[in-house]
Write a structure and sequence with these properties.
alpha+beta; about 160 residues; homodimer; Arc Repressor Mutant, subunit A; 4 strands
Chain lengths: ~160, ~160
């Protein structure tokens, strides 16, 4: 069966998954957030085969999440986060919070992120409702947005 | 080459990706957040082949993200979010925010999430530093956490 082309789907989450929905892609991004820029360092830190790493880095570059720049200190080029890539950091933190809580090690998190100048721990902020209490999922309602097609408008529109 | 077993990796993000790092898994979760519970509704709303959907639902059940419960109104069973699954909602929202911003449609988001009682839009909260300003990535420092092994302690520990 042909592989579904997620990049043509209307849902931006689906299109995001076309870029990120591969197990290694998010770990390559994790490494970039850890400050890794060189192919050999990605390869060593991730324990990933060169051909797979090369494909993942290439796809992230093609999609504007990373950019390939000349190496600052000789050698090969480096991979730097673009604005689009840096803007994924809150989503990475939210995934890390979930992973640490539900898929974590009994001893606790492997890494802790802190503000360099204050030492304050950086964690994904909790979802609060308009009264400042934790937001409960059963109070969330889905509405069609401005980019909704007819099917989504029918699905989530007012039936009144 | 053998497929790397992410579930044995120490990093909880890697273990999370073993469950979620497949393009369909996150869309199945999206549907669950939209209120979908029945196999046929997942199948129709996602346009996914039955065998793939069945495998994805089974993996999410095996990993405690969804649970299979007897259907409330006859017919087959339903798939309900567990606490672990519901707790993924902030990460889903953070992914949605990034997708809408960087992979979105020119007309705007396909769906908008609001608080049912107030109509207030629900979005992923921004990352702020301790002074309340947007957190800049270059001010983030990575430290080894309590679950860090020797390699991570060496990598991120104080070299002083």
């Amino acid at each position: 069966m042909a592989r579904t082309d997620f990049s043509r789907m209307r849902c931006p989450i689906a299109r995001s998954m076309e870029v990120l929905g591969e197990r290694w892609a998010i770990l390559v991004l994790r490494e970039a957030f850890y400050g890794t820029t060189r192919f050999d360092d990605f390869s060593r830190n991730l324990g990933i085969a060169s051909n797979i790493l090369s494909a993942r880095l290439g796809k992230l570059v093609d999609n504007g999440v990373l950019q390939r720049v000349p190496a600052a200190t000789g050698g090969r080029h480096e991979y730097r986060l673009t604005e689009k890539g840096r803007d994924f950091f809150p989503a990475y933190l939210a995934l890390k919070r979930w992973g640490d809580r539900w898929m974590g090690n009994p001893e606790g998190p492997v890494t802790v992120l802190v503000e360099a100048d204050t030492g304050r721990e950086i964690t994904s902020p909790p979802l609060l409702d308009s009264a400042g209490a934790p937001l409960e999922l059963d109070r969330v309602r889905i509405l069609p947005g401005p980019g909704a097609g007819p099917a989504m408008r029918q699905r989530f529109g007012d039936k009144a």
